[in-house]
User: Which sequence fits this backbone?
């Protein structure tokens, strides 16, 4: 196994472990927040507070 | 991102248009650009940064234009400054162009004539060219600005990476490689939303839930204070780390400068002794000149009387024909030589004649004079040999003093003000002890503060769990509590992933740094990229174990270069991984990785012979492309020998300066002579042009 393959294997294991604790709705929030950040990536000080709060309120009623 | 071409026009020191075609990855992946100090090596480095990021540290924006181009332009004309960089990345060719156009007014004043142009043309594998929609973002994807310091750097800035105080800098750099910017923003925004939910809960909660919510809010505030205190303490520790690095660097310098310092002290003692000898020589010469110096140029004083005497002898005037004794004899006999008896009148005449003395007195005087002149002649001969000998000795002593002063000056230049005296070293050692003591105190305080923060965290966790249980009794509060829990869960996962990913990459970089050190530096040292993101270097102690000691500037540079090479390997691995992703997934990756060049301005300046032999050669074998900006002095010798067979392109910065021809110089490069400095009597300012010198 090359150095990088070793890194990838460890990363995959670590990610699985970190995500395992999340419920479906938690995971949905995680994906959404990252998507929102990507959309605002060009702004120096993006503010996604309100839409994120609204999204979480919708997912967890 | 492989560099193919750089075209510079009227940028800073470079006048007119110059072009560099870079050596590509392979056996000959080194591009060398030679230039003497002030010729524009840093200008080339700045040209990259200006083109990519519009970054240039000048007070007046118009200073980016070549002074000569401005001088040559008639008033009212426009002067363009432009840098074009052609690079290749994942099968595409990118031409990045930044251009500014100025108009020249009276007095040479410049005014921007049109808005700055910045564009990127992308050519695909089929040769179809399209302009980039968002060139700024594209540059950030090709090479984020925060990362460029690891690929384009000046040698003197490089070694600071290996200082203990650079841990934050390295950690931030690695975090940028791993695209943590969005992750960090996500965590920050989720925390803000979590607070919003807390406040919402506080508004509607009653009874114990309300009390716990208030307690949690108050504990959160307390936690914020403690974290702020912790941040201040960490900042203090960082400052102390930097102070310690600085002192250790001075102490390492003092160690490295010991040999030249000792040589300098020897030369200064020699100079003192020579100066005393010069004083003695001068005094001896002055005494010789003051005693007999008039004879030096007084040839006539001795030759003319001697000549007159010789002529008198020749004429038969001396020896004298009549002598006083002869007169006395005639008077005693009483008759003339002819037998005539001397009468009274004749005796009176004869007596008078004898008293006059005639020629005999003159002869005596001339004889006395001749003796005196012979003595003078002897003294003159002595002075004629003595004075030149003394003058030669005096000149030789003065020449020796000049050479000694020159040697001292060369050492001073080598020391660059790093001539530490014993008192200064003692003061540094004492300050180092003080800083280390302060660090122990500050670290202990930070540990206590961290423990206090942990206690609050534990308290918060318990209270939240209690509130969670209580909130379930009410439908409305229960929903808010679940949202709070979900937000915290996501924050925890993201934080764990961030820390985990960082730790895995730190371990990877640590392995690469160790491998690179073996290949590049080839020196028996224990190097490490620690979990605290510090570069560490240890040497063997007397018992064979590894000990920490203040590393030399050369060691720090070599270690930094090993780290940068490790980052280049990381970028390459990230790039290979990105290639396997779909086009859509690639678009969502901030830094896409790939092959990256190493562009270095004078990186080997402070390195010793061993490093100059091993580092350039090792480095070029672990990076895909290397661009080396260096002076001929730093190039010739070990670096040249190490890289000669790897050069794929070579250029010289031909510096034109105002002045006489004696200021001009040329350098030998690959069996040819290359103009290095050209002096122009009619030039008003320095300027440079790049010339290809590859045979």
Assistant:
């Amino acid at each position: 196994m090359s150095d990088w393959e070793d890194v990838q294997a460890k990363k995959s294991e670590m990610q699985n472990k970190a995500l395992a604790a999340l419920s479906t709705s938690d995971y949905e929030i995680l994906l959404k927040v990252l998507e929102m950040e990507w959309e605002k990536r060009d702004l120096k000080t993006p503010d996604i507070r309100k839409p994120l709060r609204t999204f979480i309120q919708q997912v967890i009623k | 991102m492989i560099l193919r071409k750089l075209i510079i026009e009227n940028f800073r020191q470079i006048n007119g248009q110059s072009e560099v075609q870079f050596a590509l990855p392979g056996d000959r992946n080194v591009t060398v650009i030679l230039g003497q100090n002030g010729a524009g090596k840093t200008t080339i480095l700045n040209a990259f940064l200006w083109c990519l990021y519009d970054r240039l540290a000048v007070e007046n924006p118009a200073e980016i234009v070549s002074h000569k181009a401005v001088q040559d332009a008639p008033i009212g004309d426009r002067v363009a400054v432009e840098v074009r960089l052609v690079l290749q990345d994942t099968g595409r060719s990118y031409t990045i162009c930044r251009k500014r156009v100025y108009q020249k007014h009276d007095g040479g004043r410049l005014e921007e004539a049109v808005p700055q142009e910045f564009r990127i043309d992308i050519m695909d594998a089929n040769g179809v060219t399209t302009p980039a929609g968002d060139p700024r973002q594209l540059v950030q994807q090709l090479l984020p600005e925060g990362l460029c310091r690891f690929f384009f750097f000046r040698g003197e800035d490089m070694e600071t990476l290996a200082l203990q105080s650079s841990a934050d800098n390295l950690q931030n750099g690695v975090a940028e490689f791993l695209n943590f910017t969005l992750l960090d923003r996500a965590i920050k925004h989720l925390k803000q939303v979590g607070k919003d939910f807390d406040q919402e809960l506080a508004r509607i909660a009653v009874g114990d839930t309300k009390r716990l919510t208030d307690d949690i809010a108050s504990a959160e505030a307390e936690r914020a204070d403690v974290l702020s205190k912790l941040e201040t303490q960490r900042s203090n520790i960082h400052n102390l780390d930097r102070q310690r690095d600085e002192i250790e660097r001075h102490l390492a310098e003092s160690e490295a400068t010991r040999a030249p310092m000792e040589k300098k002290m020897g030369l200064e003692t020699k100079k003192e002794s020579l100066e005393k000898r010069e004083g003695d020589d001068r005094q001896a010469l002055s005494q010789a000149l003051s005693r007999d110096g008039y004879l030096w140029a007084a040839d006539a004083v001795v030759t003319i009387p001697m000549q007159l005497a010789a002529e008198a002898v020749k004429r038969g005037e001396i020896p004298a024909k009549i002598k006083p004794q002869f007169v006395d004899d005639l008077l005693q006999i009483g008759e003339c030589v002819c037998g005539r008896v001397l009468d009274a009148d004749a005796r009176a005449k004869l007596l008078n004649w004898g008293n006059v003395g005639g020629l005999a007195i003159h002869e005596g005087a001339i004889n006395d004079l001749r003796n005196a002149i012979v003595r003078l002649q002897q003294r003159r001969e002595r002075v004629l040999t003595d004075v030149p000998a003394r003058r030669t000795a005096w000149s030789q002593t003065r020449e020796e003093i000049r050479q000694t002063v020159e040697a001292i000056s060369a050492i001073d230049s080598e020391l660059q003000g790093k001539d530490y005296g014993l008192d200064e070293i003692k003061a540094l050692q004492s300050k180092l002890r003080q800083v280390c003591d302060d660090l122990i105190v500050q670290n202990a305080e930070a540990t206590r503060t961290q423990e206090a923060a942990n206690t609050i965290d534990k308290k918060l966790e318990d209270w939240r769990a209690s509130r969670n249980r209580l909130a379930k009794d009410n439908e409305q509060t229960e929903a808010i509590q679940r949202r709070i829990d979900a937000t915290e869960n996501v924050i925890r996962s993201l934080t764990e992933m961030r820390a985990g990913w960082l730790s895995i990459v730190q371990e990877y970089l640590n392995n690469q740094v160790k491998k690179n050190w073996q290949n590049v530096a080839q020196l028996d040292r224990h190097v490490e990229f620690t979990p605290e993101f510090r570069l560490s270097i240890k040497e063997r102690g007397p018992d064979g174990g590894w000990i920490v000691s203040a590393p030399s500037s050369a060691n720090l540079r070599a270690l930094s270069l090993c780290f940068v090479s490790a980052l280049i390997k990381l970028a390459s691995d990230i790039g290979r991984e990105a290639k396997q992703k779909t086009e859509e997934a690639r678009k969502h990756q901030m830094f896409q990785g790939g092959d990256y060049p190493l562009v270095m301005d004078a990186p080997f300046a402070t390195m010793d012979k061993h490093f100059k032999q091993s580092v350039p050669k090792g480095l070029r074998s672990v990076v895909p492309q290397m661009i080396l900006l260096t002076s001929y002095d730093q190039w010739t010798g070990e670096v040249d020998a190490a890289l000669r067979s790897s050069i794929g392109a070579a250029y010289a910065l031909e510096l034109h300066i105002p002045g006489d021809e004696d200021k001009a110089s040329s350098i030998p490069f690959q069996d040819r002579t290359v103009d290095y400095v050209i002096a122009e009597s009619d030039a008003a300012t320095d300027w440079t042009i790049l010339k290809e010198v590859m045979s």
